[in-house]
Amino acid sequence: QSTTLKELEMQKNELEKLQVAFSAALLVSGSETIGPFNTHTNLIFKNVFVNIGNAYNPQTGLFIAPVRGAYHFEFYIYGPGDSSHPSGAALMKNGQQICIAYEHQTSHTVKSANGATLLLEVGDVVFLRQWLNSKIIDNTNNHNTFSGHLLFTM
């Protein structure tokens, strides 16, 4: 039985849905201190290293699951070390906090990390939210990163 060109194109489109991975840093250029803010604030990672499947949006900072499956996310947060401001961010799924990376020391720079594997439905939204009253610093060394990938569909 011969496969039509349309059927091959449909198979290719289905395979491409299964290829999902992204990794991004906060800044495209320069250096910046982000925060402190008096509320939790969504972070937007604008410097995209890879965005296979285009599920991560560098204008909004949102990852939107294109297929149902198990996804793994990890993130690294870098801060200035400040007596009155910690450095931290939370991994969020559909507005619900999953886990945080948080560090507070009075001097020198600080770095914290965390990650989780999540079962996502099509359209579920994952993003990072900066902890209230915290400071994050970054520059072209890309200290702050957010990454995720599809492990397998379900």
UniProtKB/TrEMBL annotation:
One GO cellular component term of this record is:
extracellular region
Which InterPro entries does UniProt cross-reference here?
C1q_dom, Cerebellin_Synaptic_Org, Tumour_necrosis_fac-like_dom
Enumerate the subcellular locations listed in this protein's record, separating them with semicolons. Answer: Secreted
User: Is Transcription included in the keywords of this UniProt record?
Assistant: no
Q: Which UniProt keywords apply?
A: Secreted, Signal
The C1q domain extends over 15-154
PANTHER family from the UniProt entry:
CEREBELLIN 13-RELATED, CEREBELLIN-RELATED
Protein name in UniProt: C1q domain-containing protein
